[in-house]
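Repro:
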Amino acid sequence: MKKYTDKNSIDGDLLKKLYVRERKSSAQIAKLLGCSEHKVNYWLEKNVIPKRSISEAIYALNNPDGDPFSLSVPRNIEEAKLFGLGIGLYWGEGTRADKNTVKIGNSDPRLIKKFMEFMHKFYGIDKSMFKFHLHLFSDINFEEAMFFWSKNLGIKRSQFYKPTITKTGKLGTYCKKSKYGVLTLYFSNTKLRNIMVGLNEKP
């Protein structure tokens, strides 16, 4: 790699290429150029290239190829309905307390499936990119529950985290509503989580 450096400086265009477009960290650039990280930071400031925050730097490190999703907007009435439904589902059934993950849980596979459709349509997220966690009561057959969710959502067993199994108590009618447990969908991405929360917080 041509370094475009001399003893005292680092070329600004090279820094923009590595730091801005390729999203490399200061440490990674220093290693590539054979200089100190302090020198890289100095020339970033000298060339008026804003440094990423710690959270942005961690995100870039965890997503070296860029965002694992792409944004699109509704193009017709039907898509607008799906978009509104997806945002509503996240508002009603999602867990916004998790700062790094889009998370939504329910006992109805139709609801989870509709949210997956929303995520695929407007954020380009394939169903293979989701992870799932199943919460069961001890009187629910684990294999039956796994088959039920895998079949209804068209997902693989490898996408499931280890299930949580709670000892059955006096559940009343709740047991009927959760015959196959409660499933939580996960998509770990801080930026997308913040986008989703921001959409819900708009007046």
